[in-house]
Specification:
The chain has 20 helices and 10 strands. The chain has helices at residues 32-39, 43-64, 66-98, 103-154, 165-209, 213-257, 262-267, 271-323, 329-375, 432-439, 462-466, 483-488, 495-503, 507-512, 534-547, 564-575, 577-580, 613-619, 622-634, 636-643; strands at 391-399, 409-417, 421-426, 447-452, 455-456, 469-472, 552-556, 582-586, 598-603, 606-611. The structure holds adenosine-5'-triphosphate and magnesium ion.
């Protein structure tokens, strides 16, 4: 097909003119999905998909507001009826005007029909205005339910979905365009219906006037339709071919304009490189758009020429019918008006149909994503979550991340008794965080069990259990909320609980320095928002963990960014069993796990060693190695003595 000359050449292929080394996933191939789908799309395919799209859009509109949906459709329909009525009344006017007799009398005779034409026009315009109003009321309501549906499911899917690249692809498609097209799909669907109603009204009028006039309508609208389809498809194939380029442009634009990379853009003097990359993509896009403009102009010229020929033929045939006496002059006059009105309805219809198809692709992305995400929401569990435990046991647990080649945990068994402080240590990537997430009931093991006493966690509602566990996460979130909400996380346990939690690792000192104290918004992107340092944020994260009423407190690297004083305060607190909690402590600061009731050493996803500090030093394995290494940095002699089995204290 000639209008598909713009190939969606992958901009990241080396022979592409705009190829820049190392763009890698910036030109993600998932965006080609629609490009390819659209390239091979003919008008029939579009037409076949329409009914189901219309049905889905109407269902969504109905869900948003039955009243406004009904009003939009009913008022549009009535508008069509009055269009037809106005056209028929026009015949009366023309008949009176074309009849024999003196002009004033003819005008007088035409007056009643003229009044009907005027009346019909007023009513039709009012109906159309009403339909427009109802439709514009629908838009924001549809947007709202679409967004709520999307974010309702994204926040509920099992966490493991976020480790699956396919999930991210479809989430991105649904989020970037899908969800925002929901309202326009509904609007466009209504425009399609309006176009159909308009044409039906005209066809009805022509049928009433004279059956021979119906084929004339077809003759008048087909060339226009052809030109419209051709031009629209040209635009869409181009747009789809451009999607990867757009995506690259967005990503580069974000690097140039967002706050997060702003510092590194400068410190690594990236500006020139990024601007060159941006310019390459933008120029490629510009030349494609200019080529499109020229081709569309040509198509329009051809379409209009053909349309002119079609209209010419219509007038010739009408003239012949008049001469043959098959239709009276008044009817022919009305037919001309009707055909013009049919052409304009057809324009609406063609434009709306093409848009509906394009938006429909994105809308389908949205619907597909919601359906997929809903299938990723964990099944209903029969049992209630236990409130307490005497022992938490992990039995022979194996876990592999989606799309990972090797398991992150292999046959891991650990236990934590109520009131204990248990430490997990091991090198980077050994599986500590993964095990912590399994204990927090965020991931489900592929095999093996996690139990609170006799209750298997696979059988209970995760939501209820999670509310009994507090996690100070290694990659904690910097919530763009006030300092208070960053600690309370939307709960309200009163001021004393808040202050006590903030005091643990010195978050209270951080907050005391903020201009509005606990009410300070911790987000620099907003006026009066404040930013914290990495360590200050970590103090807040610790306070958050201690604020939660939880039987089990999981601290994953809680001190990585803390200064010596804050770290000491926190570990002292943990050592004193964090005020009666059971603690799972993950840390690389081995000096602070000496006091743990039990230490597990993970190595490549397996428990390599376990026992108390003394047991593990005596074992002289991984732990003893790591411990001695760290201790040597501080007190070389003491470390040597201890590793030789002579404790220094
Ligand atoms: N979301 C994920 N998807 C796929 N693989 C992951 C994911 N998170 C971690 N991994 C892999 O699982 C393994 C264990 O990671 P984990 O985060 O549990 O290590 P860790 O012991 O906490 O390391 P660190 O000391 O660096 O925090 C690593 O090999 C890591 O690459
Ligand atoms: Mg970790």
């Amino acid at each position: 097909m000639s209008d598909g000359a713009v190939r969606p050449a992958h901009p990241d292929t080396p022979d592409h003119p705009d190829h820049i080394d190392g763009l890698g996933e910036l030109a993600a191939p998932d965006w080609f999905a629609h490009g390819e789908r659209m390239m091979g799309v003919g008008f029939l395919t579009v037409a076949r998909r329409l009914p189901s799209l219309v049905a889905q859009a109407v269902r969504m509109a109905w869900q948003a507001s039955p009243r406004d949906t009904l009003a939009t459709v009913a008022l549009s329909l009535l508008g069509g009826v009055f269009t037809a009525f106005g056209l028929l009344a026009t015949t009366g006017v023309l008949e009176a005007l074309f009849s024999a007799g003196p002009t004033p009398e003819r005008i007088t005779a035409a007056l009643p029909a003229l009044a009907m034409v005027a009346g019909a026009a007023v009513i039709r315009t009012s109906l159309q205005a009403g339909a427009g109003w109802a439709q514009s009321r629908l838009d924001p309501q549809v947007s709202r339910i679409a967004e709520e549906r999307l974010y309702g499911v994204t926040s509920r899917v099992d966490l493991v979905a976020y480790d699956d690249p396919d999930f991210h692809d479809s989430l991105q498609r649904a989020r970037l365009r899908g969800v925002s097209t929901a309202d326009s799909v509904v609007g466009t669907t209504i425009n399609v219906l309006t176009g159909v109603i308009g044409i039906a009204a005209v066809a009805g009028v022509l049928g009433v006037l004279h059956p021979a006039l119906l084929p004339l309508l077809v003759l008048a609208v087909v060339p226009d339709a052809w030109a419209a389809v051709r031009s629209a498809r040209m635009r869409y194939t181009t747009m789809y071919a451009l999607i990867p380029a757009h995506r690259r442009k967005w990503i580069i634009a974000a690097l140039l304009a967002d706050r997060e990379p702003a510092a590194e853009v400068r410190s690594f003097t990236m500006r020139g490189f990024l601007m060159r990359m941006y310019d390459a993509v933008a120029r490629a896009e510009q030349s494609v758009m200019l080529r499109l403009a020229r081709k569309q102009m040509l198509a329009r010229l051809v379409g209009e020429a053909l349309g002119g020929i079609g209209t010419g033929i219509v007038y010739v045939v009408l003239g012949l019918l008049l001469i043959a006496g098959a239709v009276p002059l008044a009817v022919a006059g009305t037919a001309v008006l009707a055909i013009r009105s049919g052409q304009s309805s057809l324009n609406t219809l063609m434009f709306a149909t093409n848009r509906l198809y394009e938006e429909g692709l994105y809308f389908t992305d949205f619907l597909d994503f919601c359906a997929e995400a809903e299938s990723r929401i964990g099944r209903e569990r029969p049992s209630d979550a236990p409130h307490f435990f005497e022992r938490i046991s992990v039995e022979d647990v194996t876990f592999t991340y989606p799309a990972a080649d090797v398991p992150a945990l292999r046959g891991v068994s650990v236990h934590i008794d109520q009131g204990e402080v248990v430490a997990l240590v091991g090198e980077n990537g050994s599986g500590k965080t993964t095990l912590a997430k399994i204990l927090a009931n965020l991931y489900e093991p592929d095999s093996g069990h996690v139990r609170w006493d006799d209750t298997d966690l696979a059988l209970i509602e995760p939501h209820a259990l999670r509310s009994r566990i507090a996690v100070i996460a290694q990659d904690h979130t910097r919530w763009p909320l006030t300092a208070r909400h960053n600690i309370t996380m939307g709960t309200d346990k009163g001021e004393p609980a808040l202050l006590a939690a903030a005091e643990v690792a010195g978050a209270d000192e951080v907050i005391a320095d903020l201009p509005a104290g606990y009410a300070t918004l911790l987000d620099r992107r907003f006026k009066d928002g404040k930013e914290l340092s990495g360590g200050q944020w970590q103090r807040i994260a610790v306070a958050r963990g201690f604020h939660r009423d939880a039987a089990l407190l999981i601290c994953d690297e809680p001190t990585a960014a803390l200064d010596a004083r804050a770290e000491h305060a926190l570990f002292e607190r943990v050592r004193r069993h964090a005020d009666g909690r059971t603690v799972l402590l993950i840390t690389h600061r081995l000096a602070s796990v000496r006091y743990a009731d039990r230490i597990y050493v993970l190595d490549h996803g397996k428990v390599a060693e376990q026992g108390t500090h003394a047991d593990l030093m005596a074992l002289d394995g991984i732990y003893a190695d790591l411990y001695t290494l760290q201790a040597q940095a501080y007190a070389p002699d003491a470390a040597r003595r201890e590793s030789e089995g002579r404790p220094s204290m």
